[in-house]
Recover the amino acids of this structure.
């Protein structure tokens, strides 16, 4: 089973692909998934098609999205919420929203996986989903 952990930062989707059979990362080159203008329907559709292609290419069965604050100083952007909705519309993939507090509680050492710092939260989100399923 392949789980895609996702963190949405601003208008960008940061995905990490975790193979649950051997608990390893899948290191495929993923195109940048970003929406510059969230009022442009064409860009949103392109983002949806790109997300669908990336998930199909990596044979993803589950997507785990790190939840973001809806209001307050640290709240997510409107573009980010649109991206979250697009991800939830992907056919054939089960989507879960993982609370930020649950992600923070994960006992995890980034050195266990060779990942970029910006991918850490997405990986933790995928590991939370794996923990939920076991």
């Amino acid at each position: 089973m392949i789980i895609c952990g996702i963190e949405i930062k601003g208008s960008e989707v940061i995905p990490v692909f975790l193979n649950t059979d051997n608990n390893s990362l899948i290191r495929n080159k993923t195109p940048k998934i970003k929406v510059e203008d969230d009022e442009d329907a064409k860009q949103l559709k392109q983002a949806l098609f790109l997300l669908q292609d990336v998930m199909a290419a990596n044979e993803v069965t589950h997507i785990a999205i790190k939840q973001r604050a809806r209001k307050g100083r640290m709240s997510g952007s409107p573009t980010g919420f649109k991206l979250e909705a697009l991800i939830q519309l992907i056919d054939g993939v089960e989507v879960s929203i993982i609370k930020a507090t649950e992600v923070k509680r994960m006992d995890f050492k980034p050195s266990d996986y060779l990942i970029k710092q910006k991918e850490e939260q997405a990986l933790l989100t995928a590991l939370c989903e794996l923990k939920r399923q076991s």
